[in-house]
């Protein structure tokens, strides 16, 4: 099968103890503090010509499940987790082509600080930085930043809209060509091309200009993951790439069609934003080996059910530990990740919480199980049905071995079918992202 090439991203679940307790993770429990694993991994992803690696983040320790930090700390669920800006800088230093997307919450960083931080990363990476713009969703996180709790879900996006306006103005506060570096006339910067922004809005008051100088890309790449209608509207307004977790090819197609229609309605060209769907391939030397691996992943011990529900609790702020496991769920609402809860409830139907947890997994938008050749075919067929634009790969058992399976097994099979790039065409991140 030959088809149209699509884009590939890697979703790194924070700079943290990746895959604690999983096989083939070496001495990760003690070696996670040094960046060797992340660096080797990103170099491998670059060798496989991935568009980007996205560093997930949230700046708090989970506490929603059972009203305690115990399960999160005991199993290393998103903790310990390092500051993504430091790791992004190290990854940029160790690579030359791949895009690096760091997550920063709009509730946590004053816009000036964020604009300067991202501009600096864009400069030191020679134009390869993206920002995953998240609004945050947890009251525990809010309390680390002087707030009593998170504003209501849709209000967070309203605030973030103004936030985006401010940071974009700051990134634009240096006109192209402002740095003249003219030795003969002794002029470094043409002061007439650097402007204050004097923003006085509903939520922010910022003078500018940015003291760090301009981004290499002009504006850095913006990534977003809004799943609710308000979130999709925000993503359609601002994002160069949208990352999404939607179950099934029909739902994925509908999601992509929806954000593209929202872009067009605002006068944006829908082809200027790449929608990447989260998937978690399970690869084996034979089909049977891959299926056995998949069965092991789905095993539902009490511990695993609790871990899955703890993850869901963390992103929805709901205490699933307090609900009876053997009763149907009923209706639930959240001020956290609305779309994730909706997807969970949709799949649960009339099932008990235990049964729902048994089928709930982070395995991604569609199952991809088989040999590298089989999975490459599955990805190609799904993409053809959805219409584009690519996949965001992630696994719960990320190890050097898993990365080798992807980069040396799966990606060459995609390349052979014309479904993945064989070389980067451009120096900068956005140019590669929008190349096809
Ligand atoms: C692939 C993917 C990655 C995400 N990464 C982060 C992240 O790093 N930090 C974060 O706070 N939220 C993250 N989110 C959550 C989104 O920002 C958003 O809150 C969520 O998708 C629910 O959408 P909604 O808020 O519009 O309901 C991610 C979501 C998805 C699907």
What's this entry about, in short?
Belongs to the NtaA/SnaA/DszA monooxygenase family. This protein is an alpha/beta fold and 436 residues long. The chain has helices at residues 28-31, 36-47, 70-75, 84-93, 111-124, 139-142, 153-171, 229-238, 249-265, 287-298, 302-316, 338-348, 353-359, 372-386, 400-416, 429-433; strands spanning 7-12, 52-55, 99-105, 129-134, 179-182, 187-189, 199-200, 205-206, 221-224, 241-244, 274-279, 282-283, 369-370, 390-393.
Give an overview of the whole structure.
By secondary structure, the chain is of the alpha/beta class. It has two domains: 7-287 and 364-433, Luciferase-like domain (TIM Barrel); 289-359, no CATH class. The chain has 16 helices and 14 strands. The protein has an eight-stranded parallel barrel, surrounded by four helices. A two-stranded antiparallel sheet has the order 5-6. The chain has a two-stranded antiparallel ribbon with strand order 7-8. β7 (199-200) and β8 form a beta hairpin. The model has no long low-confidence stretch (mean pLDDT 95). Flavin mononucleotide binds next to β3, β4, β10 and α12.
Set down the secondary structure blueprint:
Layout: E1 7-12, H1 28-31, H2 36-47, E2 52-55, H3 70-75, H4 84-93, E3 99-105, H5 111-124, E4 129-134, H6 139-142, H7 153-171, E5 179-182, E6 187-189, E7 199-200, E8 205-206, E9 221-224, H8 229-238, E10 241-244, H9 249-265, E11 274-279, E12 282-283, H10 287-298, H11 302-316, H12 338-348, H13 353-359, E13 369-370, H14 372-386, E14 390-393, H15 400-416, H16 429-433
Parallel strand pairs: 1-2, 1-14, 2-3, 3-4, 4-9, 9-10, 10-11, 11-14, 12-13
Antiparallel strand pairs: 5-6, 7-8
Helix pairs in contact: 2-15, 4-5, 5-7, 7-8, 8-9, 9-14, 12-13, 14-15
The structure holds flavin mononucleotide.
Domain Luciferase-like: 33-389
InterPro entries: Diverse_substr_monoxygenases, Luciferase-like_dom, Luciferase-like_sf, NTA_MOA
Organism: Roseomonas nitratireducens
């Amino acid at each position: 099968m030959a088809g149209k090439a699509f884009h590939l991203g890697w979703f790194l679940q924070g700079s943290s103890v990746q895959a604690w307790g999983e096989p083939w993770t070496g001495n990760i429990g003690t070696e996670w503090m040094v960046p060797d694993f992340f660096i080797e991994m990103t170099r491998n992803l670059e060798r496989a010509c991935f568009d980007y690696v996205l560093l997930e983040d949230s700046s708090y320790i989970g506490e929603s499940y059972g009203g305690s930090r115990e399960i999160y700390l005991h199993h290393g669920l998103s903790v310990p987790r390092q500051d993504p800006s430091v790791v992004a800088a190290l990854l940029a230093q160790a690579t030359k082509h791949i895009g690096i997307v760091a997550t920063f919450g709009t509730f946590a960083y004053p816009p000036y600080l964020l604009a300067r931080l991202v501009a600096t990363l864009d400069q030191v990476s020679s134009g390869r930085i993206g920002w995953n713009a998240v609004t945050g969703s947890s009251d525990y996180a809010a309390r680390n930043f002087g707030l009593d709790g998170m504003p209501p879900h849709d209000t967070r996006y309203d605030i973030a809209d103004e936030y985006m306006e401010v940071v974009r103005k700051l990134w634009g506060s240096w006109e192209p060509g402002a740095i003249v570096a003219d030795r003969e006339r002794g002029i470094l910067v043409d002061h007439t091309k650097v402007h204050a922004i004097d923003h006085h809005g509903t939520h922010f008051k910022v003078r500018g200009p940015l003291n760090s100088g301009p981004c290499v890309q002009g504006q850095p790449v913006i990534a977003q993951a809004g799943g609710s209608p308000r979130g999709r509207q925000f993503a359609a307004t601002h994002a160069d790439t949208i990352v999404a977790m939607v179950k099934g090819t029909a739902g994925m197609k509908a999601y992509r069609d929806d954000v593209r229609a929202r872009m067009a309605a605002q006068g944006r060209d829908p082809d200027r934003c790449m929608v990447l769907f989260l998937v978690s391939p399970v690869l084996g030397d034979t089909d049977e080996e891959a299926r056995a691996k998949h069965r092991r992943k789905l095993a539902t011990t009490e511990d695993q059910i609790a871990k899955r529900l703890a993850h869901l609790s963390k992103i929805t702020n709901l205490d699933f530990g307090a609900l009876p496991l053997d009763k149907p769920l009923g209706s639930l609402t959240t001020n956290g990740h609305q779309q994730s809860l909706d997807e969970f409830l949709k799949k649960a139907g009339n099932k008990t919480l235990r049964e729902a947890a048994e089928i709930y997994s982070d395995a991604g938008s569609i199952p991809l199980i088989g040999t590298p050749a089989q999975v490459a075919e599955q990805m190609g067929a799904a993409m053809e049905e959805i219409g584009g634009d690519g996949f965001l790969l992630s696994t719960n058992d990320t190890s050097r071995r898993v990365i080798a399976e992807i980069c040396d097994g799966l990606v060459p099979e995609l390349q052979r079918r014309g479904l993945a790039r064989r070389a980067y065409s451009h120096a900068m991140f956005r140019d590669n992202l929008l190349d096809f």
